Amino acid sequence: xxxxxxxYVVIVAGGKGLRxxxxxxxxxxxxxxxxxxxxxxxRFAAYSKELRVILVLPEHQTNIGTSCAANMPSACxxxxxxxxxxxxxx
Length: 90
Description:
Layout: E1 8-12, E2 30-31, E3 34-35, H1 36-47, E4 52-58, H2 62-68, E5 76-80, H3 82-88
Parallel strand pairs: 1-4, 4-5
Antiparallel strand pairs: 2-3
């Protein structure tokens, strides 16, 4: 019998909001009372409850990310490290 495969989505939410001129990173800015990141995760959850979400955030923001992903039990938070970011943008 074939093993069941899963669909994944990777959300990289590591911005600082500098270009927006905000002290709050844009993924946590509220639109209509909800952070943008929460709205993004909810849209993917509405698409498929089976979808596996990999959420990449700076390590110091994982607590906020956990609250945004509370309604998506398959979400997996992955902290990013600055050296990985630097290497990926060269």
